[in-house]
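TICKET: design request
STATUS: open
ATTACHED STRUCTURE:
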């Protein structure tokens, strides 16, 4: 199914035309909760890029070399989540050693990358779309970068909005959802360029 698309087409489509966050609305909980400051959003964004790229490769290998040959494909959710959880633990330990400030700022949302549906969604999409190993890696990398671009853009907008007058009823999640909707509309402008299904 994916043989017709080159890895670079899948990569750019995952960032812009099929952004995992703004097109499929996966990973919204951490997107809305952590996107108050650009620095924190960038830290979480890089962590998500690393985890998405690495787990898409490992999940592809586990699926095609363990689950399919032994007819255990019904266990893919469990296996994918275990691989994702292991990588999140590695990322959490690295961030804790490298930057205490970022580790404290990310708080509970760092371990919650494990259950970020965007990361699981990337692994499931690569199976459904029958991507090759290389295409899966570039799809994971592009999806991670797309998620990071979206959360950094949201954080920048929310920092500017902090000095703006927002109607009291919309303060917090209300205005964040409106901004996310407008961002999704903006990304729809790329929709005719490359489509991956």
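STATUS: resolved
RESOLUTION: sequence designed for all positions
ATTACHED SEQUENCE:
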């Amino acid at each position: 199914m994916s043989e017709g698309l080159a890895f670079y087409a899948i990569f750019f489509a995952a960032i812009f035309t099929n952004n995992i966050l703004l097109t499929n609305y996966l990973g919204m909980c951490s997107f809305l909760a952590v996107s108050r400051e650009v620095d924190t959003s960038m830290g979480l964004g890089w962590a998500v890029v690393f985890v998405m790229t690495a787990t898409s490769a490992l999940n592809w290998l586990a699926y095609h070399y363990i689950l399919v040959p032994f007819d255990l494909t019904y266990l893919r959710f469990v296996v994918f989540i275990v691989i994702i959880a292991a990588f999140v633990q590695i990322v959490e330990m690295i961030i804790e050693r490298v930057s205490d400030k970022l580790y404290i700022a990310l708080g509970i949302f760092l371990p919650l990358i494990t259950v970020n549906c965007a990361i699981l969604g990337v692994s499931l999409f690569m199976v459904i779309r029958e991507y090759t190993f290389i295409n899966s890696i570039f799809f994971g990398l592009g999806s991670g970068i797309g998620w990071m671009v979206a959360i950094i853009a949201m954080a920048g907008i929310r920092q500017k909005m902090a000095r703006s007058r927002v109607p009291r009823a919309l303060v917090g999640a209300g205005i964040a959802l409106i901004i996310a909707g407008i961002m999704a509309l903006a990304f729809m402008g790329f929709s005719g360029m490359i489509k991956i299904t």
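CLOSING REMARK: The longest helix spans residues 38-67. DSSP finds eight helices and no strands in the chain.
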